[in-house]
Design brief:
Length: about 130
């Protein structure tokens, strides 16, 4: 299994993340905000994380500490979830902000984005809210 911890540049207060391998796959905790200014960094994080997860594992993106997530970031996440599914990797999202959950639903991304209210639910595959 993966044996590393990755942390992005913590000096960039707008967006940073830490990746922790687990027996289930990889948990990426994301902090700050994702907007048009740093969507390229968000996409890089998604791409690098997805590649690091072995087939048949989970990639959990924990956005519980995000202050803001743009629609573009959600679209990139939905695309990564679909692409990863084709490789046998399940992407689950932890979201604590009701506004982000509403955007997922209103944009019709429920089938692509598996959103969970907490890390335990995402790890255990509980039903999304």
């Amino acid at each position: 299994m993966l044996g590393f911890i990755v942390e992005s540049n913590p000096q960039d207060h707008e967006l940073h993340w830490t990746a922790h391998p687990t027996s289930e796959g990889l948990i990426v905790q994301v902090f700050g905000q994702v907007d048009a200014h740093n969507e390229a960094d968000w996409q890089r994080m998604l791409d690098e994380s997805a590649v690091a997860v072995p087939e048949g594992s989970l990639l959990i993106v924990d956005c519980g500490s995000l202050d803001f997530m743009s629609c573009g970031a959600l679209v990139a996440l939905a695309k990564q979830a679909v692409d990863s599914r084709q490789r046998g990797v399940t992407v689950r999202l932890v979201i604590t902000q009701p506004s982000i959950c509403r955007v997922i639903t209103e944009c019709g991304m429920d089938d692509a984005v598996s959103a969970h209210p907490d890390l335990d639910s995402a790890l255990n595959g509980g039903d999304p809210p």
